[in-house]
Amino acid sequence: MPPPLVRTDLRYVERVVHGSVSEAELAVFGLRLADVCDFSVNTNPLGPASSVLSALTEADWTRYPGDDEPRLRQALAKRNHVPATQVVLGNGSVELLWLLALATLRHGDRLVVAGPTFGEYARAARVAGADVVDVRDLASAPTSRLLVVCNPNNPTGRYCDRGAIETLLADAPRRGVVLDEAYAPFVDERWPSEPLLESGNLAILRSMTKDHGLPGVRLGYLLASSSLATAVEAVRPPWSVNAGALRAGLAALEPEAEAHVARARAVVKHTRTLLSEGFTRLGFRVEPSAANFVLVDVGDGARFRQALLPHGLVVRDCASFGLPAHVRVACRLPDDCTRLLATVAHLRL
Questions:
Q1: pTM for the whole structure
Q2: Domain spanning 8-47+257-347: CATH superfamily
Q3: What pLDDT is attached to residue 1?
Q4: Which of 99, 202, 246, 281 has the fewest CB atoms inside 10 Å of its own CB, making it the most exposed?
């Protein structure tokens, strides 16, 4: 009998639960997506910059999207003070994470993740045939081929300082360290990680759509040594970044768009305090956060989320992170946050 066509180890790979809400779930309450105030997705509370939206309309959808890739890669290299050979574009930072796993992990290798955190790290490693170890203390991380740190971390909002990452790089120079900075644009006092690329064993993942409120566009980039970047590029599918995303990426680097993100960062700083103090006054425990979201212990995350849905409010149930008592709440506009807190107080959740 011939061997099975499908890899038997894939039976242990489960899909990762992400945020937001479906039309079908809302229909039960007579609601549409347009009726909902969604705190489960962590993006720019001001939405996209008009200049970035305009750039999307300038894309030529009748041609393959290759011409703008060198321009965007060069622009990102200049911005980050690295050669263009150290920059890889991707269909969102998640694709680049999967490509990193494909380029570096072999069957039986080990990936260490600093948890609780984003589930796609473990999923990508398991698809590559690697084993996954979740640690809560980076100092206790076992030997591994790769170690992933989300910084600031999703869903806790914890932000590691430069010294902690330098220690990880120095302690095991043959181990790759992946620093996922998808939410770093919302950090008030952000430290520059690009100089640490000189270690040779660091890869930095960045999103270009969370800070610009365009998660549907899918665009991110990776910074790494030239050899690792070349390996990731070798396993990257052709034309994985569409023409509109490339144009949006170029526009996102312009002063107008950067000023828009700076304004959003100020809003996030205000509403992070508003949410943290508001939930604390209501008797809930809130984790200190440097990101554009807060993690709140509500006792039963699923019940809490369900109670808010009929009111057109969506928060992120954190059971899939291994935190069933918690919800994650994004920093939206002040009026939205005030409405959420008032509803929670009224319902006595």
A1: 0.95
A2: Aspartate Aminotransferase, domain 1 (3.90.1150.10)
A3: 66
A4: 281
